[in-house]
Amino acid sequence: MTTVKIYTAKMCPYCSAAKRLLKQKGVKLEETDVTFDPAGRQAMTKKAGGSTSVPQIFIGDTHVGGCDELMALERKGALDVMLQTG
Q1: β-pair partners for 32
Q2: What dotted CATH number matches 4-85?
Q3: Within the chain, what is the greatest distance between any pair of CA atoms?
Q4: How many other C-beta atoms lie within 10 A of the C-beta of residue 57?
Q5: Which of 27, 19, 21 is nearest to 1 (CA)?
């Protein structure tokens, strides 16, 4: 299974929902909490093409986006394929 990197913040219900879905699928997450980390948030924003909201999710080298985009992939049946192929 491919590496999944997720940038999160404390008390973020969207972060919790995204992590819950990925963990249900048996995905091992590389989580970076940017709540009190301005440099980490800046790095996340740069890597995410200017997106400043959390979560920001990367499957392998592919930027998925946030929780809404992750859930849309799941509804389409595309998330499992991405997790297998990266």
Answers
A1: 7
A2: 3.40.30.10
A3: 35
A4: 25
A5: 27
For residue 10, what are the CA distances in angstroms to 60, 72, 77?
24, 23, 29
pLDDT band with cut points at 50, 70 and 90 for residue 2: confident
Q: How many CA atoms within 13 Å lie on the side-chain side of 23?
A: 9
80, pLDDT greater than 90: yes
SS3 sequence of the chain: CCCEEEEECCCCHHHHHHHHHHHHCCCCEEEEECCCCHHHHHHHHHHCCCCCCCCEEEECCEEEECHHHHHHHHHHCCHHHHHHHC
